[in-house]
Amino acid sequence: MFGKSKAAGNASNKHGSTTLISSETTINGDIHFTGAVHIEGRVKGNISADHGLLTIAHSGSVEGDVRAQRVVVDGHVRGNVFAEEHLELASRAVITGNVFYNVIEMTKGSQVNGSLEHHPNGVPAGQQPLLERSEASDAEMPVGEVIEAGNN
User: Fold this and answer.
1) Which tens digit of pLDDT belongs to each residue from 53-78?
2) Rounded to 5 degrees, what angle do the CA atoms 146, 112, 129 make?
3) Is this structure's pTM higher than 0.90?
């Protein structure tokens, strides 16, 4: 009715509510969410989702590990990226760290300064998928620490 496409409406309904971290915002600490998070600002901490979509816009940056079912990156990530279902790297994406994915879509111009590892659920062997981890097994991870790719 107000110019919003059906596809955009369906995307927000599929992932529930959307949280925006605006370009003037810096968050120091970990984020855990369900639904959708759109980052235009800066996050210094790890980000994880139970069921969700994480979008890092061109102006957005994350210093820490990213774990979500669906991840779209058009900004900067300094840390490892774990995408259980789908990872989309847009043309201005820059990832300094290792990428673990199930399905990946890369646009010309995107950069990964680390290794790319395909795994059926986007998580290396020995690590549980996000949906199967218990709160007790969530150990704190150092922010922005790049892990070495295993010889699985």
Assistant:
1) 999 999 999 999 999 999 999 999 99
2) 55
3) no
Exposure string for 28-48, b = 16+ CB within 10 A, e = fewer: eebbebebbbbbbbbbbbbbb
Rounded distance between C-alpha atoms, residue 87 and residue 31, angstroms:
19
- Where are the extended beta strands (E) located within the chain? 18-21, 26-28, 31-39, 42-44, 47-56, 61-63, 66-73, 76-78, 81-89, 94-96, 99-101, 104-106, 111-113, 116-118
Contact 54, 70 (CB under 8 A): yes
| Intra-chain end-to-end CA distance of the chain, in Å | 51
Alpha helices (runs of H) in the chain, residue ranges in sequence order: 6-14
